[in-house]
Amino acid sequence: RISLPLTLAILDGQLVKLADQVFVVPLISIIESIQIESERVKVATGGVELYRLREENIPILRLKEEFGLGESGALDKQLLCLVEASGNRVGLLLDEMLGQQQVVIKSLESNYTRVNGVSGATILGDGSVSLILDIQGLMTGFLSRVADTNSHIAA
After folding, report:
1. How far is the C-alpha of 78 from the C-alpha of 17, rounded, in Å?
2. Measured distance CA(72)–CA(141) in Å, rounded
3. Contacts of 48 (CB under 8 A, 6+ apart)
4. Can you say how many angstroms the Cα of residue 13 is from the centroid of all Cα atoms in its chain?
5. Which helix (H) or strand (E) holds 149?
């Protein structure tokens, strides 16, 4: 006998790798992914890295540092995944893109606690647990830190 919940939240996601961890980026947030050309990267006031793409400067969010997984290393060996939420765009710095798949969302809040930048978790086909990124939450925290840094420099 198998008991199934009445509702399941299913998400189309892009599996990405940071260090030895696999994360899920919701496909609905992804605009495009590109190989970084290091000559297009500039550092703005406050140390914020910007990637110049088609007449637009996109702030780079180093996810490894954000989640405490180590240093990102040389930019020319990385991928940049451009994501958008609430009209803002940010480039997520990734080690590798693995593949797309539909995942079932498991809430972390009901089973553990709220984690900034993470909307939930899922169990992958190999039995490993992968965190699902909260793109809006990541961007809000990152852009507010950038604004705080720039306001301290201006003062």
Report:
1. 11
2. 19
3. 59, 60, 146, 149, 150
4. 12
5. helix 135-154
| pLDDT number for residue 155 | 44
What one-character-per-residue DSSP string does 34-55 give?
Answer: EE--GGGEEE-GGG-EEEEETT
The structure tokens 């550092």 sit at 43
Identify each DSSP E strand in 27-114 by its residue range.
30-35, 41-43, 49-53, 56-62, 79-85, 88-94, 96-104
pLDDT in tens, the chain (155 residues): 877 665 678 899 999 999 889 999 999 999 999 999 888 989 887 788 899 998 899 999 989 888 888 887 777 778 999 999 888 899 999 999 999 999 988 887 776 777 888 988 899 888 899 999 999 999 988 888 877 766 655 44
CB atoms within 10 A of CB 50: 16
* 140, containing H or E segment: helix 135-154
Largest Cα–Cα distance of the chain, in whole Å? 66
List the structure tokens of 107.
């809430």
